[in-house]
Each structure stands twice: as structure tokens, then as C-alpha cells.
Write a structure and sequence with these properties.
The complex is a heterodimer. Chain A has helices spanning about 55-65, 160-175, 215-235, 280-290, 295-305, 310-315, 320-335, 335-355, 365-375, 380-395, 400-405, 415-425, 430-435, 440-455, 460-475; strands at about 5-15, 70, 75, 75-80, 90-95, 100-110, 110-125, 130-135, 135-140, 145-155, 190-200, 210-215, 245-250, 255-260, 270, 275-280. By secondary structure, chain A is of the alpha+beta class. Helices cover about 40% and strands about 15% of the residues of chain B. In chain B, α8 (about 270-285) links the parallel β9 and β10 (about 290-295). The two termini of chain B are about 20 Å apart.
Chain lengths: ~475, ~500
């Protein structure tokens, strides 16, 4: 008998607005503990929240990009619970009237196209952090009040592959919208997985919620693990307990945290300190107009306007930093095809080599476009191109200076090439003889020898042409 | 000097007849002279006040215009945050707590050149109607020290009635300015919700709380309200567009003003003397030209339960932050995190506060939300709509503030339902977010003051104050002073 896996996601994304959701403090990651707090975000008696309108705009942007209906009027609610990282002992969130409802995201997984439903998106504030060390536990409220959106999907997933594909697409969209930096390690993107299994055609099974998924891969692994765990449990006659589980990616397994019996009653009620949020049609239209081109739209344009291959377009739009870089280099150099080749080839290779994440990419577009100009005008050969690309990427050198200093400019002086070719033939009479005897391999050897004498900077075409001429003129001994 | 109204005092300081420091010093002496026998003051900031008075004097001498209340000493209910000045809410939980910022209302007082002299007693976290629930003992009524001053702004009303301060700030969530004014024979205004910033007011019930003035007459209260009212970027529920002006010339008449009198407020549980005094006031308004007409106030049996459900629900959430971790009281016996929460809150809060937190947590808990909280919200909406209808007929409603005059200390403290029913005439005003003034309108057979309430439409404080001033021009109840209060002039009864 087979089992069907039913999965829904709750994705928390920290919004990269300049200030926090209800006060003027910076919401940036890090900082000395408690250096980015004020009476409002630290929940001091008498302090009141003041909604940062940019948060509403960011949340609406995500909603529009995911095809949601954005509510003309939404409200905040309080979610009450005690924990030391929550200084007010309630989180301001949205339960009854969230900002966005109903939407879809198209994904492709396991070779199949699929549409995942979005139930809702709501705005809320993040909690602080507890820091544990030998002296005890300390509270750091810097993250208190950092704006979050929670994106809740319908239970439309059937596999870990679909979950990972969804998360990749969602990350891509959030990055393109510029609303979240999506650094899972820093917690700016967090995923909770709700999973149950059932027999096809039968009602849904009891679900568990998995937390602490620190990467997309971890999410995929956790889904696989939890699916297997529930099936084994059911097949051995046991029952799944509704509970929250914590994923330990190093151990490759999850542990129960709290079951439904211990579930908290959050005593939600409307937040009396904030007015309802109004978003009129004009403002919504403004936000819709300001939506940037998204990845799938870019892919279509690259293929159409730049005649790039599907594979190239996919690599270039995999991350907004990459497509931004490509578009800058293409624009500055006027050579989109060559720019695409440089980025999908050398730059991607170097990023892999140095383990550079796209969000940390800092290579200068102007320098890369100068490099593109060198190669597309035939002034340097492939070897020099590779070497220069590496120097630009790793050390940020100026390509023009570097090429000049290293003498990498392709030698196009006929006299010098002729001389090098002549010397190569004279130094290697056996190879010349072999060539004339019909051994083609010897030609390549002689080209290499001539290039060596030219310091690697000879134009390969010129060298070949001169060599051919020289060998035909060599008397057959 | 202590006989002067706040406005007269400021004028005298500006005219150079006395200095701001002399004014502050005289009031501090008055407090010391009575030995704080009404337990109205929880703290007197003598040095700070005198230093501050000197600064204000320098500004006046330098030709700065300042406000009509510049140089006037003032004291604040102890739930209003003043930077670096202990603000306790009369709770063990906040003993020793010094705010790192000042409430917006406080900043406005200071900008207006007023001098903060001290902090005033109250019910713990403003929960109560008698100022008996605070950890520092009950505030006493200057007309009879065996009786309560009312609450929760009992310290504010008692200090003004006793002549220990010319003006005070209180806060009103369900009657907490009006009822102590009535019990102590002084004047006060509960402003429209959204007229005065709540930033820095330590919250009891956020959708109901408002800071307001308490003084000897409406002229002083109106002047103070014009100082503290106005929009505030830090409080998004403070939706008023401009501060109140109150600058229209005071008329002697109320011709063309329609006054509604809720007939059913005068049946049943109301004290005979209170009824007599308020109805006499209705006649006085009619004599001034007002058209007084009776009507039936709807929903009276629902407003007290609805108020307690909403207020306690919000309080249960607002007071969750007092967890023993960050500031305020922490139980010495706590060993685990759960202990810190459980013991600190059990020991740090008093009985009434705990009762309301439990009630509020209950009505919000899953399974009971719809049965209690949601129904209370519906009642609130109906009450608002009912008031909207009434204000199509009337300009102002005249009502008693409380069914009785001040009761004796300890009389009602063990009977919360009886205590809560004392709020019957005041809570609907908060549920609807309306302004209401409380004015002295007579005395009962025991010589205790009785107050009336004038209720207006949202943001009609200027009209309300106008009617109150006409009433006070025509009567002298507000000029009566309890025997033994420091001012020598004025009438005593």
C-alpha cells in the first residue's frame, strides 16, 4: 500500500526596511547586544507602537507578486505568551484580518510543473534573542520589533523536492522585490514545515510541525525524515501525535518539543494601540506599478532580446545579484552575449571555487565590462582572459592596468610572430619533419612552442597562419 | 497665594508679584504642613521642583511668552511617566522603577512652563474606584479622612481638594477622573479618546485610558487641557487634529442648548441626596436658558459587564510585561524561569490587579472569546451607536457621576461587584470614547460633596467646558473648601 504525504509551509521573512516595524530603531542584523532598542521595542511601560508604513508597502509587494488579494483594510492583533525574548509578553501580529489572502506560486519539481496555493500573508514583529553563556542567560532585544511577514501556504506539497523548489522560487521573488535578504543562517528567512501522511483517497492524517530548518536542503531532508517516521509509526500500528518537533540537521533527525496538550492558548485579541491599516486603490496601484521585473520575466526577456540559451538565462536569473551584475556588464560593454558567457562561465566558476554566495558578490561591473571589451575586440586570447578574470574577481584589479603590466595583450606584430615561428621550427626539426610526413599532431606542438616564445600572448590564428607558411617553405629533406 | 486659581497664579508670576519658586515652595510647604495626611502624594520632588521653577522663572524674565499656566505647580497621578522620577502605579511591582523617558503630556507641561512637584496616589495600576488598592495605603478624602477619595485618581482629586496643589493630572478608564472629583468636590475632564496622547501613560486598558486635568474649576482645567491635548506622532490612536483652544468668551447663558437628562439614572440604586443635587443642577441649567429634556438611557444593564470584560482583557495583556525579568519586582525565592514569572507576579501584584488579570485572561481564552469578549465588543458598538443617536437630539447630557458620595475606607473593598456597580454612570462614556466633565454640584446630608457629569459628543470639549463654566459662574459649589485645608480664604462648610 502506498502513502501520500501532505505538506504545508509557514515561511517567516524578515523585511529589510530601514527601521523596525513600530519604532525608529535600526532593524539590521547584529550590533552590540541591546544597542538597537528604545522604550517602544523593549516594551517599557507606557510606550506605544507606531506603524512603519514601509512595512505595509513591502508586505503588499510580496502579496502582489504572489497573486494575492491585498486587503484595503487590515488590522493587527496581539498574540499573548510569556517568554524572556518577548519583552511585552505579547507579539503584535495579524490573525483576524491579515494584509494579503489567496495567491499562487508556480513551481517545477521532479520535471513536473505545479501550482502551490498561498493561504495568507500577515505582518508581525520579531522577538529578541536569548544568549546563553557560562555566566547564565542574557536577553538581547536588538531583534525585537524587526518586521516580519509570515507566508502561509495551502497544504499543496507532496514531496521534499516540491518544498525545495517552492522555497527557491520564493527566495528568488523576495530578493527580486528587494524586501528580504533571505539569509537563512542569520535567520532572515525561516521555514516551518507542517506534514502528515495518509492513504490516498482517505482523510488527512495527524500533522506535526517542524521547526529549526536552517537551509533549504535541511527542509528537504527534514521532510523526507518526517515522512518516513510517520509512515513507519503508522505501519507498525502506532499513531502520530500532533506536536511541534525540532529538526537537528547534524543528527539528521527531529525531536518532539511540545504536544497539542501543552499547546499554548495565545489569547489573541485586536491590538488596541494601533489603528486599522488602510490601503486605498491609488496607493495599491502605485505599489503594483513599482514592482520590479521578476526572475521568470527576466528569463523570457534575456532569451528574446539577447538570444541567450535557456541554460544561460536560468543561471543569470538564479539570484538577483547575478542578474543585476549581468545587466550592468551587458549595458556597459554593449556585448550581452559575451557578458553572459563571462558570468555564466568564469564568474560562476570562481564563485564556486571561493564558495562565494551571490548575496556576498562584490565584483565590479565596470571592470568586468572592460574585460569583456578586451576579449570581444580580440585584444587578448582565452588564456589571458581567464587569468585577468581571476585577478579582477579575487583582487579587484583594473583589467586595463593588469593586462598592460602583465603584457597580456595579444601580439599582432607580424614580424615578431614570424620570428617566433621560425625559431620554433628551427629548434624542433624533428617535429617539422613529422608534420611534413603527415603527422598533424606535430603542428599543434609547434604552435605551442611558438606561443611559448611569444610569452603566451600570440594570436593563435596568426601563429597558425605563419607556421603553415613557414612549413610549406621548408625544403623537404 | 494658595487661594489663587492656577490661571491667576501664573498671571501673578508673570506680573512679577511673586516668583515661580515661591509658588512651588508655598505648595510644597502646604503639603508638608498637612503632613500628607490625605496620603495624596506618593513622592514630592522638592529639589527638582525648585530648580525647575528657577528655570521657568528665568524664561519668564527673559521675555518668553510661555503658556497661561507657566510657573504653576502641578502633580501627576503615579501612572504617568516622568523621566528619572519614580513611577510606581502604586504597585509593589513597579516600586523603584524610574522611566527612561517622559510621557508626551509631561513634555507638554514642561514646554508650557509648569513645574512638576510630585506624584500622586491611586489604585494599583488604576484598577479600582476608591484608591484603596495601592500598595502605599488609601488616599483619604479631605472632607472626611475616614472616607475614600474615590478612584482611581484619588490622590489627584484629594490633593486638589486639600489645597496641596492647584492642578493635577489624572487618568480615566471607566470613571477614574470623574468619580474622585465627585467624591472630593473638585472639577475634572475625561477628554475624548484620542484627544490627549497616551504615550507614557502606563496602560491599564489601552482602548479606554485617557489622561485628563483635575483642578478647582473649569477655567483651570480647560487651560490645562489645552496644554496637554493635540496630535502626537508617538500615539497613533491620538487622532485629534489640533489642541483645544477654549478661547471663546464665556457666556452667562445656555440659550438654545439642548440638555438630555437620563431619567433611568435617577431610579433604583441612586442615593437620595445625590439625586437631589443633580436634579437641582438640571434646574440651574434650565434657568440659564438650556432646554432640559428627559430620555431613557439604553443598555444600562450591559455597560458595566461589557466594560469589565474589555478593560480586564486589555489589562491582562498590558500587564503581562511585568514578568520579573526586566524591571520592577522580582521574587527573591524564584529559582527557575517559571518561578520568576509565577512568584514575581503573585507577590508583586495586589489582589484587585490579579483578579482583573485572571478575569481578562479568562474572557480571551479559546472557547470563551466569542461568549464574552466578542459580545462585549458588540455591546460597545451598540453603546456608541446609541450615543450617536442621542447627540442628534441633545448637545449635552447631564448625569450623576456616581450613585453615592464617598463611602468609608474599607466599606466596599471586599465586595468587588458592589464596587464595580459604582461605575454604572461613567463607563459607557469610556466605551464610546466621549468627553465628560465632572463638576461639584452640592453636598449630601453628611456634608460630603456630590458631583455631576456633563457628557458631550467626541471632540466637543470646548462646548462642554463652555456649559460647565456657565454653571460655575452661576453656582459656588466649586469654591467650597473642606475644613482644615491650608488655604485660609474661601468658604468652608
Amino acid at each position: 500500500m502506498t502513502w501520500e504525504t501532505v505538506i504545508g509551509l509557514e515561511v517567516h521573512a524578515e523585511l529589510s526596511t530601514k527601521s523596525k516595524i513600530f519604532c525608529g530603531c535600526s532593524g539590521e542584523f547584529g550590533g552590540e547586544p541591546n544597542s538597537r532598542v528604545c522604550p517602544v521595542c523593549a516594551g517599557f511601560p507606557g510606550a506605544l507602537p507606531k506603524l512603519n508604513r514601509a512595512v505595509v508597502e513591502y508586505a503588499a509587494r510580496v502579496g502582489l507578486a504572489l497573486g494575492c488579494t491585498v486587503a484595503p483594510r487590515c488590522k493587527f492583533d496581539r498574540k499573548n505568551y510569556f517568554y524572556p525574548d518577548l519583552p511585552k509578553a505579547y507579539q503584535v501580529s495579524q490573525l483576524y484580518l491579515p494584509i494579503c489572502q489567496g495567491g499562487r506560486l508556480e513551481i517545477e519539481a521532479d520535471g513536473q510543473k505545479k501550482s502551490i496555493g498561498i493561504r495568507e500573508i500577515h505582518m508581525e514583529e520579531d522577538a529578541g534573542k536569548l544568549v546563553h553563556d557560562a555566566d547564565g542567560t542574557f536577553m538581547d532585544f536588538n531583534r525585537c520589533g524587526v518586521p516580519l511577514i509570515e507566508i502561509v501556504t495551502l497544504p499543496d506539497f507532496r514531496s521534499g523536492g516540491e518544498v525545495m523548489a517552492f522555497l527557491e522560487r520564493l527566495r528568488e521573488i523576495l530578493l527580486y522585490l528587494g524586501v528580504c535578504d533571505c539569509k537563512m543562517q542569520e535567520g532572515s528567512l525561516r521555514v516551518d514545515v507542517n506534514l502528515s501522511v495518509c492513504r490516498p483517497g482517505e482523510g488527512l492524517g495527524v500533522r506535526t510541525e517542524m521547526k529549526n530548518l536552517n537551509s533549504f536542503k535541511a527542509a528537504g531532508r527534514a521532510v523526507e525524515y518526517e515522512r518516513r517516521r510517520q509512515i513507519e509509526l503508522l505501519e507498525s500500528g502506532g499513531a502520530v501525535v500532533q506536536e511541534t518537533r525540532r529538526w537537528d540537521d547534524d543528527a539528521g533527525e527531529s525531536f518532539g518539543m511540545r504536544s497539542k496538550e501543552n499547546a499554548q492558548d495565545y489569547r489573541y485579541f485586536p491590538e488596541p494601540d494601533l489603528l486599522p491599516v488602510e490601503l486605498d486603490e491609488a496607493r495599491l496601484a502605485g505599489i503594483r506599478q513599482s514592482l520590479p521585473e521578476l526572475a521568470h520575466q527576466k528569463r523570457a526577456r534575456y532569451r528574446r532580446d539577447y538570444a541567450l540559451s535557456e541554460a544561460e538565462a536560468a543561471v543569470l536569473t538564479g539570484h538577483k545579484r547575478i542578474s543585476d551584475l549581468f545587466e550592468s556588464v551587458a549595458r556597459l560593454s554593449g556585448e550581452p552575449a559575451e557578458a553572459a558567457r563571462l558570468i555564466t562561465g568564469e564568474i560562476m566558476r570562481l564563485m564556486n571555487l571561493t564558495d562565494t554566495q551571490p548575496e556576498n558578490l562584490s565584483v565590479d561591473a565596470g571592470k568586468l565590462s572592460a574585460l569583456v571589451a578586451f576579449v570581444s575586440s580580440g585584444k587578448i586570447n582565452r588564456g589571458a582572459y581567464k587569468e585577468t578574470a581571476e585577478a579582477v574577481f579575487l583582487r579587484g584589479v583594473d583589467p586595463e592596468t593588469y593586462i598592460a603590466e602583465k603584457g597580456l595583450l595579444m601580439l599582432t606584430d607580424g614580424g615578431a610572430v614570424a620570428e617566433a615561428v621560425k625559431a620554433a621550427v628551427e629548434d624542433n626539426p624533428d617535429a617539422a619533419r613529422d608534420y611534413l610526413a603527415g603527422k598533424d599532431k606535430a603542428f599543434g606542438f609547434l604552435v605551442g612552442q611558438a606561443m611559448k616564445k611569444l610569452g603566451g600572448n600570440g594570436s593563435p590564428d596568426m601563429v597558425r597562419e605563419h607556421l603553415r607558411k613557414c612549413l610549406t617553405n621548408t625544403p623537404n629533406r | 497665594m494658595l487661594d489663587m486659581s492656577a490661571l491667576e497664579l501664573s498671571a501673578a508670576i508673570k506680573a512679577g508679584k511673586l516668583s515661580a519658586a515661591e509658588a512651588a515652595g508655598a505648595y510644597i510647604d502646604a503639603i508638608e504642613k498637612t503632613g500628607n495626611r490625605h496620603n495624596a502624594f506618593l513622592a514630592v520632588a522638592k529639589d527638582k521642583a525648585l530648580a525647575r521653577a528657577g528655570e521657568v522663572q528665568a524664561r519668564i524674565d527673559g521675555g518668553e511668552a510661555l503658556s497661561p499656566l507657566a510657573g504653576v505647580p502641578i502633580a501627576l497621578k503615579d501612572n504617568i511617566s516622568v523621566c528619572d522620577m519614580e513611577t510606581t502605579c502604586a504597585s509593589e511591582m513597579l516600586r523603584g522603577y524610574k522611566p527612561v523617558y517622559s510621557a508626551t503630556a509631561v513634555e507638554r507641561l514642561e514646554a508650557a512652563g509648569m513645574v512638576i512637584v510630585g506624584k500622586l496616589n491611586m489604585d494599583e495600576f488604576a484598577m479600582g474606584g476608591s484608591s484603596e488598592t495601592g500598595v502605599f495605603g488609601p488616599a483619604r478624602n479631605p472632607w472626611d479622612v475616614s472616607r475614600v477619595a474615590g478612584g482611581s485618581s484619588g490622590g489627584s482629586a484629594a490633593a486638589v481638594a486639600a489645597g496641596e496643589i492647584p492642578l493635577a493630572l489624572g487618568s480615566d478608564t471607566g470613571g477614574s477622573i470623574r468619580q474622585p472629583c465627585s467624591f472630593c468636590g473638585v472639577t475634572g475632564i475625561k477628554p475624548t479618546y484620542g484627544a490627549v496622547s497616551r504615550y507614557g501613560l502606563i496602560a491599564y486598558a489601552s482602548s479606554l485610558d485617557q489622561i485628563g486635568p483635575i483642578g478647582r474649576d473649569m477655567d483651570d482645567c480647560a487651560a490645562l487641557l489645552s496644554v496637554i491635548s493635540g496630535p502626537d506622532d508617538k500615539d497613533s490612536t491620538c487622532v485629534i487634529e489640533n489642541p483645544f483652544g477654549f478661547d471663546r468668551p464665556v457666556s452667562e447663558r445656555l440659550d438654545g442648548v439642548n440638555v438630555g437628562l437620563p431619567r433611568n439614572y435617577f431610579d433604583g440604586g441612586i442615593d437620595r441626596d445625590v439625586k437631589r443635587a443633580v436634579l437641582a443642577a438640571a434646574e440651574e441649567l434650565a434657568a440659564a436658558g438650556a432646554a432640559v429634556e428627559e430620555f431613557e438611557m439604553p443598555l444600562t444593564e450591559y455597560v458595566v459587564p461589557a466594560y469589565y470584560i474589555i478593560a480586564c482583557a486589555e489589562a491582562s495583556s498590558n500587564l503581562s510585561r511585568y514578568d520579573g525579568l526586566k524591571y520592577g519586582y522580582r521574587s527573591a525565592d524564584a529559582k527557575t524561569l517559571n518561578d520568576v514569572y509565577r512568584l514575581s507576579r503573585s507577590e508583586g501584584f495586589g489582589l484587585e490587579v490579579k483578579r482583573r488579570i485572571m478575569l481578562g485572561s479568562f474572557v480571551l481564552s479559546s472557547g470563551y472569546y466569542d461568549a464574552y469578549y466578542k459580545k462585549a465588543l458588540k455591546t460597545r458598538a451598540l453603546m456608541k451607536a446609541a450615543y450617536d443617536g442621542l447627540f442628534k437630539r441633545f448637545d449635552i447630557l447631564l448625569a450623576p457621576v456616581a450613585p453615592t458620595s464617598a463611602y468609608t475606607i474599607g466599606e466596599n473593598i471586599d465586595d468587588p461587584v458592589k464596587m464595580y456597580m459604582g461605575d454604572i454612570y461613567t463607563v459607557s462614556v469610556n466605551l464610546a470614547g466621549l468627553p465628560a466633565a465632572a463638576l461639584p454640584c452640592g453636598f449630601d446630608g453628611r456634608g460630603l460633596p456630590v458631583g455631576l457629569q456633563l457628557i458631550g459628543q467626541a471632540f466637543s470639549e470646548e462646548k462642554l467646558a463652555g456649559a460647565a463654566r456657565v454653571y460655575q459662574r452661576r453656582t459656588d459649589w466649586h469654591t467650597r473648601k473642606p475644613a482644615g485645608s491650608p488655604p485660609t480664604g474661601g468658604k468652608t462648610v
